[in-house]
Design brief:
The chain is an all-alpha fold. It has one domain. The protein has four helices and no strands. Helix 1 packs antiparallel against helix 2, helix 1 packs across helix 3 and helix 1 runs antiparallel to helix 4. 25% of the residues are buried.
Length: 140
């Protein structure tokens, strides 16, 4: 029973974290296209605050619960979990990169946001899709 509660909390923290990732990436993509005006800077400040209070703790909880679940289930010996961890590491890195871009955008409004951020929502979606397939199908 405890395992199922841990799994449910893990899934909930993943949902909050991924929602925050998408929010960050969409705002960055829009800012790369249009630039930052005063209302955009206020939005960036709100997202940064939400990230620090909610999304980053969800990321940490996702990792902690994922490790605990992997140990309890003995899944660390499986190939599917290793593949999943590659995608989780990519998403964790993207989170940090996006948080840094938002921090720079709020402290240096004249700074331009790189055009490649337009691809980040798609990269996040593909990573989440791959993770979902690996978790459900558990290939090899």
């Amino acid at each position: 029973m405890t395992y199922l509660w841990l799994k449910a909390l893990h899934v909930a923290s993943v949902l909050v974290w991924v929602g925050g990732l998408f929010t960050q990436s969409i705002v960055l993509a829009a800012a790369a296209r249009t630039g930052l005006d005063s209302s955009s800077r206020a939005l960036v400040a709100s997202i940064r605050s939400w990230d620090g209070r909610v999304v980053l703790p969800a990321l940490i909880l996702t990792w902690v619960l994922g490790i605990v679940l992997g140990v309890l289930s003995g899944s660390f010996r499986t190939g599917w979990l290793s593949a999943k961890l590659v995608f989780v590491i990519v998403l964790s890195g993207l989170h940090g990169m996006q948080a840094g871009m938002l921090r720079r955008a709020s402290s240096h409004p004249e700074a331009r946001i790189a055009g490649f951020v337009r691809w980040l929502p798609g990269l996040i979606a593909l990573s989440v899709l791959a993770i979902a397939i690996l978790v459900v199908v558990k290939p090899g």
